[in-house]
Design brief:
binds tryptophan, mainly alpha, 8% strand, three-stranded parallel sheet
């Protein structure tokens, strides 16, 4: 049977949090164990420098993300796990695709439009103030990430769907002009709702409302204690609708445990108690991985060699693909 090829990138800014875990990492690792799926997961460090110009942060985040995925059991024998910057073919393809991409298409990208809108709202005379070419053209880099390995299914959050559609457009245009080289990718958006953060909005680094995945147990409990609840006293029945605590519970609970917590809410469980139980539930799922994470974080050389081996394996595909592309566009040896 032909396997479908899943490919996704993780931008290396920030520390993995529960929202990343539930929304992206856990499903991706499950998918990597599915024999009908071939997975390509990479650390998108050249995407990280679009917004972050602090070298230490980029390096630290790369390390944390790599260790997180490995600690959670990503099987690097049966998947491709690599760092974007270790695949030079991506950059070369990115330029080639840049030359096939309409500027007007990039003008419509949400990330760029959002930045322009912010400038306009701030009354800036220059709508492009502070916007780099990196931000403007990053959908092209993302396209290169995808096409270099002929990614088919691209798991992304809703905000990235437009970029995957752009990748498809660019691939189509290239194929039309130079012959069928690229597979046309499509986005897959997890149907599960996004995890809420401490304040009830989507859990996101930009809102500062995250619960880090691999903090010490003590810190994890502390973060959980900060989840917004209401003023209902112990003994007063509580409503599961609109309860961030209950929603996070559900991201870790099986049906039986979901029912258990609904009963507890109805019986008026104290918020403090519910938070203790939530800690125990999450901790049970991640405690072993946390130990492996701590070990890996202390063994950066080992992690580095896993990443380099992953890149070597991936480049067996990116090299010949890029060679085909060069041939197709006329960047060829003379004869
Ligand atoms: N831009 C994506 C994000 O911010 C990350 C990413 C980079 C990506 N390259 C990719 C996702 C290629 C899917 C495919 O989430």
């Amino acid at each position: 049977m032909k396997k479908s090829r899943y490919l996704t990138g993780i931008t290396t800014t920030g520390t993995p949090h529960l929202g990343n875990y539930v929304g992206a990492i856990r499903p991706a690792i499950e998918a990597s164990q599915n024999p009908t799926i071939e997975s390509y997961y990479f650390l998108a460090d050249y995407h990280a420098i679009i917004k972050c110009h602090e070298p230490e942060k980029i390096q630290q985040s790369t390390k944390e993300i790599a260790c997180t995925w490995l600690a959670l059991g990503l099987d690097t024998e049966n998947s491709f796990f690599y760092r974007q910057s270790d695949i030079p073919e991506i950059q070369e393809l990115s330029w080639i695709l840049t030359c096939m991409t309409a500027k007007g298409l990039m003008n419509r990208a949400h990330a760029y439009k959002g930045a322009v809108q912010e400038n306009e709202e701030a009354g800036s005379p220059d709508p492009d103030k502070g916007i780099t070419m990196g931000l403007f053209s990053y959908p092209v880099l993302m396209t290169a990430d995808i096409l270099i390995f002929n990614g088919e299914k691209i798991p992304v959050g809703k905000d990235q769907v437009q970029h995957v559609e752009m990748a498809r457009d660019i691939a189509q245009r290239f194929n039309h002009h130079f012959g069928e080289i690229f597979t046309l990718p499509e986005a897959v958006v997890p149907d599960q709702a996004v995890l809420k953060g401490l304040d009830g909005r989507k859990m996101s680094k930009s809102y500062g409302n995250t619960i880090p995945l691999f903090d010490t147990p003590k810190k994890l409990q502390k973060s959980i204690n900060k989840i917004k609840t209401n003023l209902l006293e112990p003994g007063e029945p509580k409503d599961i609708d609109d309860s961030t605590l209950y929603e996070i519970w559900c991201a870790f609970a099986n049906e039986e445990k979901k029912q258990y917590m609904r009963d507890q809410y109805a019986a008026g469980i104290a918020w403090g108690q519910a938070k203790k139980e939530l800690f125990a539930l999450i901790n049970e799922e991640i405690a072993e991985a946390r130990e492996r994470y701590d070990e890996l974080m202390q063994a950066p050389k080992k992690v580095e060699s896993i990443l380099l081996a992953g890149a070597e394996k991936a480049r067996e595909q990116s090299r010949p693909l890029l060679e085909n592309v060069r041939q197709a566009i006329g960047i060829r040896g003379l004869q």
